Amino acid sequence: MDETHLFFISFFCLLPLIYLVKFLTHQKGKNLPPSPPSIPIIGHLHLINGHAHRVLQHLSSKYGPIMALRFGSRPVVFITSPSAVEECFTKNDIVLANRPLLLSGEYLDYNQSTVGAAPYGQLWRDLRRIMTLELFSTARLKSYTGVREDEVRSLIKNLYRDSFQNFTKVEMRSRIQGLSFNIVMKMIADKRFYGSGIEDLEEASRFRDVIRDVFEVSGASNPGDFIPFLKWIDFQGFEKRLMKLHKKCDRFSQKLIDDIRTKRCGSSSDEGNDMTFIDAMLSLQESEPAYYTDDIIKGNILTLLQAGTDTSSVTIEWAMALLLNHPEVLERARTELDNYIGQERMVEEADLTNLPYIQCIINETLRLFPAGPLLVPHEPSQDCTIGGFDVARGTMVLVNAWAIHRDPIVWDDSLSFKPERFENMANEGYRFIPFGMGRRQCPGSSLANRVMGLALASLIQCFEWERVSNELVRLLEGKGLTMPIDEPLEAMCRVRQRMGHILKEI
Ligand code: HEM
Predict the structure, then answer these.
(1) Ligand 1 centroid to residue 88 C-alpha, Å
(2) 348-376: pLDDT as tens digits
(3) Which amino acids does the record list as binding heme (predicted)?
(4) How far apart are CA 467 and CA 169, in angstroms?
(5) What pLDDT is attached to residue 369?
(6) What's the predicted TM-score (pTM) here?
(7) The complex's ipTM?
(8) How confident is the model at residue 506 (pLDDT cuts 50, 70, 90)?
(9) How far does residue 451's CA lie from ligand 1's centre (Å)?
(10) Mutation test of ligand 1: which of 114, 442, 450, 483 has the most ligand atoms closer than 8 Å to its C-beta?
(11) Ligand 1 atom 35, closest CA
(12) N or C: which terminus of the chain has fewer CB atoms within 10 Å of its end residue's CB?
């Protein structure tokens, strides 16, 4: 081995050590959160040898609800109590409103220029305001009611076709995913890429291909985000994969933008119910082209697809799995629907406010199986304290919502599925946080609740459901960006006799 090689190897090995020494020097004399013993260079990464939320729950039971770990050279603090969550998102809310910079943020978030990844500042505020106004305001949500109802009807029609006489085994995941992707895509670009009636089959197939890759890559963790040396050598070719995926997504989203741009040339006004997210962004681009660039639009299209689709669909799938294991809950929900709606029509979105038990089922599902078990990472923009412990600027802060939702000190009979616990509960406080809290909490929660509520209510109202065998559905978490069920859900489905005449007409 020549001297140059030796120099580079020692340099790469020493660098994480230098980072560590620098970090430890900065932390000297501070009151740091408890932490398990660590290993040089990798820190505590070796401890995360299963589902992170489960491993961390176990560690917190030993080291406390505010626990410090080190993932390679990156300090990480885990929060596992409602009182610490409250402190994070009230007293420290602004300080914690930053996101850590990860490699995926460079490529899939166009250098952190999306609402989900941007640091707390003007760009984030502008994007958040635009989304609130153009996608999530009551008026905008109302204007898209028809889209959601059409998509849910299309799901129901599909199931009706497959199971109108006898109990038939149906696969649920792909159907529910199609529903939530179509709804979000209609809001973004007035297009649908799943199910029947697709206009451009080739574009739809390209979309599904891009989306599969996006979820696969963004669901995988990148060791290079924690051990800089691995980033430099592009360990496991992660950066190359991201670069390739970025190009693919970029081409796809550019085409969506260009199609809307062309359409807009022929029309004179931005008014109307079918104004999409891309329309709204292009209209802003006309007045500030250097700020609202195509790259900003493309990044945010991808963010909405990542944040707003699987989150709702995995929750509907978990809810259906729970209902199959709890027929008494299913029956009670059906009675609520029948009592309120009767036999002559299908449930509509406007009915949801009068169907509180359906919302209780959704809440209880989100409690036991939050789609983002560790929420989304935060990063303090300056040194702060949480629970009396010092947390340095640049530390990654993660909240273990999954563990808080299952904590027996916080919830009675915490592991049981009991939707009625949410009845008459005015405010769940900081112990129920499936959508996060504070400034960066999920802006899509009302949309998600409408989609999940209408889909679930329609599935319950129109069909009888049974498990495929006597055995309970296994409620095991799988891997992914959101927390899916291990195996795609299958169920036995049959049209309810009293609904047959209505379903025949849709
Ligand atoms: C069951 C459904 C959903 C769940 C459980 C969920 C959960 C979350 C969570 C935990 C966060 C991070 C909060 C934090 O930083 O602490 C988040 C952020 C976000 N969600 Fe959702 N979400 C859902 C549906 C949606 C939908 C339907 C959309 C939009 C179409 C959406 C868009 C976003 C965006 C843009 C952010 C980033 C906000 C920011 O950083 O400022 N989500 N969501």
Answers:
(1) 18
(2) 999 999 999 999 999 999 999 999 999 99
(3) 442
(4) 9
(5) 98
(6) 0.94
(7) 0.99
(8) confident
(9) 14
(10) 442
(11) 116
(12) N
Rounded to whole angstroms, what are the CA distances from 396 to 11, 254, 380? 26, 33, 8
DSSP assignment, residue 39?
B
pLDDT at residue 256 is higher than 80: yes
Residue 401 alpha carbon, nearest atom of ligand 1: 10
- Domain span at residue 402 reads 122-503
Measured CA to CA, the distance from residue 80 to residue 76 in angstroms comes to 13
Span 329-334, average pLDDT: 98
State the distance from the centre of ligand 1 to the C-alpha of 427, rounded, in angstroms.
20
Asked if the structure places residue 68 within a domain, the reply is no
Binding residues for heme: 442
C-alpha 388/C-alpha 241 separation (Å) is 42
In a domain? residue 116: no
Distance (angstroms) between ligand 1 centre and the Cα of 444 equals: 6
Residue 367 has which token pair?
């409690």
- Cα 242 to averaged position of ligand 1 atoms, centre (Å): 22
Residue 408 belongs to some domain of the structure: yes
- What residues does ligand 1 touch, defined as CB less than 6 Å away? 115-116, 128, 184, 303-304, 307-308, 311-312, 315, 370-372, 375-376, 434-436, 440-444, 447-448
pLDDT, one tens digit per residue, over 417-451 is 999 999 988 788 899 999 999 999 999 999 999 99
Q: What CATH number is attached to the domain comprising 408?
A: 1.10.630.10
More confident residue, 29 or 313: 313
Query: Is residue 250 included in any domain, yes or no?
Result: yes
